[in-house]
């Protein structure tokens, strides 16, 4: 089954200790997204890649970085996690952008910061 | 700035009753609206998009530009409809600049 995979599903890190979340896709989609979803909140877009073109949201903290080494993989790096970064992180992909380009979501990685 | 509002965090109905999940938006341009659904222990997935004017799993949603609403409706709710529903708005100026903005979601529970 073509899909979006996120590893790990649960990640625990310490305050200030760098952490990397990974996302892979077998859909061969051009676009990959990272969303942050805090409890009882809407998923919030952090950034996305259109092929190798990186698009950062204006209000995404500098603490959050991303890498896309190839079409299939995309990583979210949190350089110095704070307690406020505890959340569910969702990866999504789409073949393009616009109304007819459905976003396919991964199961998410729940990040806990101790 | 664009915004999506889902006024109800929780909605509980009985099986067979009609259900309406409310969604209002604010956007100065021409909106493109969606409903996404997340069933228990499953990933977020697209339910329907307004431009397709489709009915999926018995759900429909009509865009009302006068009221800036995109409410999701189903005449007879089923227990398997229990899930978290998110209304979402897409904006963009073309190219690689599209962005999906979500509401906070409504948790629908359909009781037997």
Question: Which secondary structure elements does this structure contain, and how are they paired or packed?
Answer:
The complex is a heterodimer of chains A (114) and B (112).
Chain A: E1 4-7, E2 10-13, E3 19-25, E4 31-37, E5 44-50, E6 53-56, E7 64-67, E8 73-78, E9 87-94, E10 104-105, E11 109-113
Parallel strand pairs in A: 2-11
Antiparallel strand pairs in A: 1-3, 3-8, 4-5, 4-9, 5-6, 7-8, 9-10, 9-11
Chain B: E1 3-5, E2 10-14, E3 19-21, E4 24-26, E5 32-38, E6 45-49, E7 60-61, E8 72-74, E9 83-91, E10 99-102, E11 106-111
Parallel strand pairs in B: 2-11
Antiparallel strand pairs in B: 1-4, 3-8, 5-6, 5-9, 7-8, 9-10, 9-11
Description:
The complex is a heterodimer of chains A (114) and B (112). Chain A is mostly beta strands and 114 residues long. Chain A has no helices and eleven strands. Chain A has strands at residues 4-7, 10-13, 19-25, 31-37, 44-50, 53-56, 64-67, 73-78, 87-94, 104-105, 109-113. In chain A, strands 2, 4, 5, 6, 9, 10 and 11 form a seven-stranded mixed β-sheet that branches. Chain A has a four-stranded antiparallel β-sheet with strand order 1-3-8-7, with no helix packed on it. The model of chain A has no long low-confidence stretch (mean pLDDT 93). Chain B is an all-beta fold and 112 residues long. Chain B contains no helices and eleven strands. Chain B has strands at 3-5, 10-14, 19-21, 24-26, 32-38, 45-49, 60-61, 72-74, 83-91, 99-102, 106-111. In chain B, strands 2, 5, 6, 9, 10 and 11 form a six-stranded mixed β-sheet that branches. In chain B, strands 3-8-7 form a three-stranded antiparallel β-sheet, with no helix packed on it. Chain B has a two-stranded antiparallel sheet with strand order 1-4. In chain B, strand 9 (83-91) and strand 10 form a beta hairpin. The N and C termini of chain B lie far apart (41 Å). The model of chain B has no long low-confidence stretch (mean pLDDT 90). Classes of the chains: A mainly beta (114), B mainly beta (112). Chain A binds chain B through residues 4, 31, 40-45, 48, 50, 53, 55, 57, 90, 92, 97-108, and chain B through 4, 9, 32, 43-46, 49, 51, 86, 90, 92, 95-105.
């Amino acid at each position: 089954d073509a899909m979006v995979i996120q590893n790990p599903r649960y990640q625990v890190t310490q305050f200030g200790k760098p952490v990397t979340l990974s996302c892979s896709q077998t859909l061969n989609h051009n676009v990959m997204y990272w969303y942050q979803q805090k409890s009882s909140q809407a998923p919030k877009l952090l950034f996305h890649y259109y092929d190798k073109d990186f698009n950062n949201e204006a209000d995404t903290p500098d603490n959050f970085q991303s890498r896309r080494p190839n079409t299939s993989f995309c990583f979210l790096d949190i350089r110095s996690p704070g307690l406020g970064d505890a959340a569910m992180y969702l990866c999504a992909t789409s073949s393009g952008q616009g109304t007819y380009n459905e976003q396919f979501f991964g199961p998410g990685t729940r990040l806990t910061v101790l | 700035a664009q915004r999506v509002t889902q006024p109800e965090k929780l909605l509980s109905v009985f099986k067979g009753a009609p259900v309406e999940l409310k969604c209002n938006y604010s956007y100065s341009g021409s909106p493109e609206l969606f409903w996404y659904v997340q069933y228990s222990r499953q990933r977020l997935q697209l339910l329907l998009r307004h431009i397709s004017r489709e009915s999926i799993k018995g759900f429909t949603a009509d865009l009302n530009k006068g009221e800036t609403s995109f409410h999701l409706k189903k005449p007879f709710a089923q227990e398997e409809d229990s899930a978290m529903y998110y209304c979402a708005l897409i904006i963009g100026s073309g190219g690689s600049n599209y962005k999906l903005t979500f509401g906070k979601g409504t948790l629908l529970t359909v009781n037997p």
